């Protein structure tokens, strides 16, 4: 019978990434006897362990990071070829937490190969794990596309009608569709985080991914939408806790959950402006924020960007493209309902405006922080940026 043993043996993909590091740090810190098996791209188990330790050291001191990394079983490998991986250490897994993904926005064929085809390869390997009780697949709330209602409910997506801004969300939607269609025999639960920014107590130390964009919007004093509209942002430590809860809770009411701020903790732009003003060491106000049109006012954005950051060199050019792309997401005014998650008894998320100050306290220069997301923008911006469909 599946899941007879009480000792959990968790296969984690993506341990060297932002969310994976947070999950592993929290999971290992619990010292509850859980066995952690990490599938990591590396030349040797020792190199993989060092890559994991480097990621963990963003959450704790280097000594503790090394100690925690030593408690992990490292399986060198690529999850996109997991179905060909006969390593017997994978056979006895009880839970899979699949976080690994290609998170770059524009590498169409590559992201589809990794996020769709690769996820199915891992699911095929999971079929040969007789003790498996849960396969938690981490998708993204943004699979809803550009025309979703202001309050997004889980069950409405993935939808073949959804229009996407980037190939990344197309690939994540396709993976969900194929998992549901072809792997009904697996105990799959899907978690869809919204926008993960910072850590509620460590601020931007674990990663400055996306935080730099919100800071850039503040520096530019430009908002691409009604200031009363919202962005759904959550901290990585709360996401990690929620994912561990979804992975380990024996019975869940649903097989699909947003891991999101929801109506209770979403960030309205005007709240963010107030939070930036409150955190400003120079006591500056934010009365000079201007609403602008992302398409019609391209020249205004370019001019402000050039004044604020300069436009010299490839990095700044890439940063301007990335700001435009993120603004497109931020102007969608989407809140992802977390009612299902909260009904499971998990803690509600803190609001971004409440932990923004912590994130700013240890944040280096904005352009320096952009380096954390640079890989997401390596492919050239497609021209024109037309909405994509899940079937594209
Ligand atoms: N961050 C967010 O705001 C956010 C929001 C919603 C959903 N999500 C989802 O959450 C998950 C984790 O995101 P993240 O922000 O933590 O991403 P990340 O920092 O870019 O990390 C990606 C991880 O995936 C691993 N990976 C990629 N391809 C692999 C392969 N072929 N074989 C083995 N490992 C591979 C990477 O390993 P290497 O170190 O070897 O490259 C890395 O550990 C993703 O599924 C993402 O779609 C994230």
From TrEMBL:
InterPro entries to which the protein is assigned, alphabetical: FAR, FAR_NAD-bd, NAD(P)-bd_dom_sf
MF annotations from Gene Ontology: alcohol-forming very long-chain fatty acyl-CoA reductase activity
Gene3D superfamilies xref list: NAD(P)-binding Rossmann-like Domain (3.40.50.720)
Source species, domain of life: Bacteria
GO biological process: long-chain fatty-acyl-CoA metabolic process
Boundaries of every Thioester reductase (TE) domain copy: 12-242
Pfam families from the UniProt entry: NAD_binding_4
The protein's name: Thioester reductase (TE) domain-containing protein
């Amino acid at each position: 019978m599946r899941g007879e043993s009480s000792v959990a043996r968790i296969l984690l993909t993506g341990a060297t990434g932002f969310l994976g590091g947070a999950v592993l740090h929290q999971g290992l810190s619990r010292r509850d006897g859980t066995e952690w098996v990490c599938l990591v791209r590396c030349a040797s188990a020792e190199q993989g362990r060092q890559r994991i330790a480097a990621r963990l050291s963003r959450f704790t001191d280097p000594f503790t990071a090394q100690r925690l990394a030593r408690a992990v079983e490292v399986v060198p490998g690529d999850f996109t070829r997991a179905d060909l991986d006969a390593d017997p250490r994978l056979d006895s897994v009880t839970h899979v937490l699949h976080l690994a993904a290609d998170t770059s926005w524009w590498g169409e064929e590559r992201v589809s190969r990794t996020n769709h085809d690769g996820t199915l390869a891992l699911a095929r390997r999971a079929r040969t794990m007789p003790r498996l009780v849960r396969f938690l697949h981490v998708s993204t709330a943004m699979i809803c596309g550009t025309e979703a209602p202001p309050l997004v409910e889980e069950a409405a997506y993935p939808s073949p009608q959804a229009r996407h801004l980037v190939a990344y969300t197309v690939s994540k939607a396709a993976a969900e569709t194929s998992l549901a269609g072809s792997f009904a025999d697996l105990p799959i639960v899907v978690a869809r985080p919204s926008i993960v920014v910072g850590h509620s107590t460590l601020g931007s130390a674990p990663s400055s991914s996306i935080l730099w964009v919100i800071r850039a919007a503040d520096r530019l004093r430009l908002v691409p939408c009604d200031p009363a509209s919202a962005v759904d942002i959550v901290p990585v430590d709360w996401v990690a806790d929620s994912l561990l809860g979804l992975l380990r809770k024996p019975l869940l009411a649903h097989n699909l959950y947003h891991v999101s701020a929801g109506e209770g903790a979403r960030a309205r732009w005007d709240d963010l402006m107030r939070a930036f003003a409150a955190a400003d060491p120079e006591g500056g106000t934010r009365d000079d924020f201007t609403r602008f049109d992302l398409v019609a006012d391209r020249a205004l954005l370019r001019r402000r960007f050039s004044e604020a950051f300069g436009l010299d060199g490839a990095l700044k050019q890439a940063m301007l493209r990335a700001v435009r792309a993120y603004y497109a997401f931020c102007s969608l005014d989407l809140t992802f309902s977390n009612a299902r998650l909260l009904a499971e008894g998990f803690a509600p998320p803190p609001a971004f405006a409440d932990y923004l100050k912590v994130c700013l306290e240890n944040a280096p220069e904005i352009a320096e922080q952009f380096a954390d997301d640079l890989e997401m923008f390596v492919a050239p911006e497609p021209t024109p940026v037309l909405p994509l469909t899940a079937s594209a």
